[in-house]
Amino acid sequence: MGRVAVLGGTGWVGRFVCAALAERGRDPLVVARNHVPHAAGYDFRSIDLGAADVGTLAKLLRTEGVDVVINATDGANTTDGWDRTEAELRRANVEAVHRVLAAMAELPWRSRVVHIGTIHEYGPVGAGISINESLTPRPVNAYARTKLAGSAAALEAVREGVVDGLVLRLANVCGPHPSPASFPGKLLSLFREAAAGGEVKLSIADARRDFVDVRDAADAAVKAAEASVTGRAVNIGSGVAVEIRELVAHLAAAAGVPPDAVKETGAPVPSLGGDWIQADIRLAARLLRWRPRIGLAESLRAMWEAG
Predict the structure, then answer these.
(1) C-alpha–C-alpha distance, residues 235 and 280, integer Å
(2) Beta-carbon neighbour count of residue 279 at 10 Å?
(3) Torsion angle of the four alpha carbons 211, 27, 155, 131, in this order, in degrees rounded to the nearest 10
(4) What pLDDT does 274 receive?
(5) CA distance 169 to 185
(6) Alpha-carbon distance 89 to 233, whole Å?
(7) Where does the NAD-dependent epimerase/dehydratase domain lie (predicted)?
């Protein structure tokens, strides 16, 4: 693996991908719209990936000698969160991916892409089903549809011989420095208020979801960049479906908030998927020699302490 560019390297997943690369002695090139303090120490290039044309992107990759692109961008990782329109999500999650792949095709050397997708691309499944890569994706909302289209573009580019690479479909992410738009990010904000003497009022879905620590997800992305296997979608998760109430209880314990300070409101809970998500992660173990290392309680404790 040569020079690695991390697109969206200032975001939640991207910052930990950069850290994982640095731990391996590599100097990541962070590509994002705005510089942030935690990107200090890395080479940084300011580009609006949602608007940059193919020529601009190709020049950047060629000038910097980039061999590997890890695409950690996410159209919902904004202050608007999941409320963005399908057209806005398509520009970020599909059109920008096509331009990045076209730019990689112009490089005078063979390059590799690791495209970070989502487990929600598969759509809802029945309780007890462990989602494996042979399942036909049937996304049911704009976010999942556009993420699937971006993943499909990456896999098609591999099939056409434009690039080598993999798609990683991440389960729900938790851990330090969450995106404010994410469920863990919103929970963290509520528990900060409660730790100051208030109550936590929230709706808790009667659901089970698979949560993977962001540092484990970043490790998977780097291992995918280093691997020789190509042209596959690979699930990344904990392999366990956890009750949402258990997640809330773990965060309450980490924050020192007594259980009776958590009040359920009973309001409807919006969701990107069904009531059951559990990733089958055996392919990741076989192809990438990757397994999650950080349990949910430890992940949420680190999330609280990092806050």
Answers:
(1) 7
(2) 28
(3) -10
(4) 76
(5) 20
(6) 21
(7) 4-237
| CB environment 214-243: b (16+ within 10 A), e (fewer) | bbbbbbbbbbbbbbeeeebbbbbbbbbbbe
Residue type for position 71: N
Measured CA to CA, the distance from residue 234 to residue 279 in angstroms comes to: 10
Mark whether 143 is an active-site residue: yes
**Is residue 167 a contact partner of residue 151, using CB atoms and an 8 Å limit?**
yes
Give CA 301 to chain center in angstroms.
20
Q: Which uninterrupted H or E stretch holds 4?
A: strand 3-7
For residues 269 and 276, give the distance between their C-alpha atoms in angstroms, rounded to a whole number: 14
Shortest CA distance to 120 belongs to which of 217, 247, 209, 204?
209
Cβ proximity of 162 and 97 under 8 Å: no
Please tell me the predicted confidence (pLDDT) of residue 194.
81
Q: How far is CA 55 from CA 71, 85, 307, in A?
A: 18, 27, 39
- pTM above the 0.85 mark? yes
Catalytic residue among 16, 143, 211, 276: 143
Q: Which residues of the chain have pLDDT under 70?
A: 1, 76-83, 266-273
State how far Cα 216 lies from the chain centre. 11
Which pLDDT score is estimated for 79? 47
Helix spans in the chain (H): 12-23, 54-63, 86-90, 96-105, 142-159, 183-195, 214-226, 244-255, 282-288, 296-306
In whole angstroms, what separates CA 274 from the centre of its chain? 18
Question: Any idea what DSSP says for residue 209?
Answer: E
Its sign, for the CA torsion 85, 88, 205, 233, is: positive
